[in-house]
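User: Batch of two.

Assistant: Item 1 of 2:
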Amino acid sequence: MSRVPSSVVAAAGLVGGYAVARWTEKRPLGGVVLVAAGGVAAREWREVGGAGVAVGLTAAYVAAFAGSHPLAKRVGAWPAVFSVAGGMAAASWAVTRAKG
C-alpha cells in the first residue's frame, strides 16, 4: 500500500481544517482536523527525516496556520488558506524529498 505524501497531508490539514470550521460553524471541529492531519504529517516527517525535521516542519505547520489569519485580512480567507497550504506543502516536499 502506498502512503499519501506528508506534503499532501499537511496541505490537506490546513485546507480541511478551515473548511470544516467554516462549513460546520464549529471552530473546535476544524481544529480537530488540523491537529489530526498535523500529527499524521509529523509522524511521517519523523520517520523520514528524524526528530529535528519533524520539529522544524511542525513549527512551520503551526506558523502557517497562525500566519493565515493576518494574511486573510489582506487577501481573503480562502486565498490565504490556499497560500499557506501551498507553502507548507512545498516546504515539506523540499525538506523530505531527498531523505525519503
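Item 2 of 2:
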Amino acid sequence: METVVLIAVIILMIGIGTRWIHLLNAQHDARIEAYHFSDPLPRPPGLPDDTGRRAHSTDADR
C-alpha cells in the first residue's frame, strides 16, 4: 500500500511541477511581449542590401 501512495505522490508532484513551469513560461512570455525594444539601427551607407554570409564572395569559396 505504501508503494501505491508513493507512486501517486510522485505523479502528483510531477503534475504540479509541470503546471508551475507552464505558468512561469507564460509569465515570462507576457513580460517579453510587454517590453518594447527600440527601433533597429539604420543601415550604414554603402552596405549591400544582403549582408549575410552568402552575399560575400571570397577566394576560399572557390
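The mean pLDDT is 82.
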